[in-house]
Amino acid sequence: MNDMTTIDRTQRPYSAAAQAALARKPALFINNEWVASSHGALIEVEDPSSGKIVSHVVDASDRDVDRAVAAARAAFDDGRWSGLPPMVRERTMHRLADLLEAHADEFAELEAIDNGKPKGMAGAVDVPGAMAHIRFMAGWASKINGEVIQPYSIPDGAFFGYTRKEPVGVCAQIVPWNFPLLMACLKIAPALAAGCTIVLKPAEQTSLTALRLADLIAEAGFPAGVVNVITGNGHTAGDRMVKHPDVDKIAFTGSTEIGKLINRNATASLKRVTLELGGKSPVVVMPDVDVAQAAPGAAGAIWFNSGQVCVAGSRLYAHRSIFDQVIEGVAEQAPFWAPRASLDPEGHAGPLISKEQFDRVMGYIEAGKRDGASVAIGGDAPAVDGGYYVNPTVLVDVNPQMSVVREEIFGPVVVAQRFDDIDEVAKAANDTCYGLGAGIWTKDVATMHKLASKIKAGTVWGNCHAVIDTALPFGGYKESGLGREQGRQGIEAYLETKTVILQL
Ligand code: ADP
Asked: Cα(186) to centroid of ligand 1, in Å?
């Protein structure tokens, strides 16, 4: 095994383009203009690879939120976006995707600096994913149709009934810090295709790419007020967005705890709500697999993005007959996923997002050890001068009562358990309040289908993990969410159905 202790985790110098983005005066994007906040409060932008403060963004006030919502409301109510021919909406969205592509390298670097993920990963996953969401949904702008429906109890010929699909209105979209640009584009794309207007708030830890995206939104030619981007804290600006009477729909991705709070707060005015929340996704490895293929798959399922993934495969169930081989195979992948500074070209994983998250993850590892778990690999943090690095970790000798098995850690920590048959493993996989994703590794097609139907999760992967495609619906069972994003269902979530009945 390579020696992970000798990695130099000093952050590399930033490019001139990144330095220019960091040197921007903190401002909000409202009505296609950069405007100052109503008060002077700022949020520090930290590079998690070094722990250094590298910029500041606005901490939006209630008045700032109100201003952004008013802009979105006016832009929706006068139909300056929904009233355009679908072809024009589609082409504007394609221009935005093309602009993103033209600036792909800059976006990848900014994401790496802001979030800590390797620039190579941001360039391979986040930026192309963001473009795909916009391009796929752009096509839907011209394919939103109602239906002509034959009446049942009123005479056909005397009455004519049909449905129209109309945009839901002003959307408040609140996104997390783990895939900042990708999540922002996943959110705005269906709303734009449907004809909605938007107030988008990135997470307070990672606002840089959403702000840069706003430049491109203006350049692409979206009418003023269609997309407004405000930066700020969740419990203040986010809360104001959720409770605002002029907002028609909330789309949120983040923790289950905040998702539940948002759902409660949105109930007063019955806002439409879609929620993409947490998970504790199982990865099941059946005895017939080729361990040399399944073990790296299980390692990537948890260690990609340092485990800061809602569908992270954080509970590994390996068949008793191959358990030791699987653990060994997963452990062999640890050097590949060893955390490095985000601009290190050798890196496949980075630091955690913040000190808070670092303490949380290390706290879980300690709790697991106290409860009797053994560390098969990792379980510690490399010695560094700044930055929030945690080594890839596998915990064994765990039981279903332990917090490390039950709770979402959101870090590079997997708990591994043995099983004997598929009914037992399906029961164990479902023994959770979550239901976001699940991975199954087997060559046996019958076992694959049986397990895929038994496990309660919004997405089941077979012989792969966390493969996301914008055309396929994504969302959670149980406490992992409400509604679906992506695909046809993703656009439906931004439409109201109006029934029209005419007496002829
Ligand atoms: P995490 O625990 O992963 O940091 P959160 O669920 O706290 O995720 O945050 C995800 C997003 O939700 C962020 O943009 C954050 O600002 C926002 N947020 C946090 N609290 C609230 C709230 N009370 N109301 C609205 N948005 C919130």
From this structure: 17
Catalytic annotation present for 310 = yes
pLDDT along the chain (504 residues), means of 10: 77 98 98 96 98 98 98 99 98 98 98 98 98 98 96 91 98 98 98 99 98 98 98 98 98 98 95 98 98 98 98 98 98 98 98 98 98 98 96 98 98 98 98 98 98 98 98 98 98 98 96
Instruction: Tell me the C-alpha distance between 229 and 227, whole Å.
Output: 7
Which is catalytic among the residues 46, 111, 276, 408?
276
- pTM across the whole model: 0.97
Residue tagged active-site, from 171, 185, 310, 485 = 310
Q: State the distance from the centre of ligand 1 to the C-alpha of 308, rounded, in angstroms.
A: 15
Shortest-distance atom of ligand 1 to CA 203: 14
Contacts of 314 (CB under 8 A, 6+ apart): 279, 280, 281, 302, 307, 408, 409, 413, 414, 415
Nearest CA owner, ligand 1 atom 13: 203
Catalytic (active site) residue 166: no
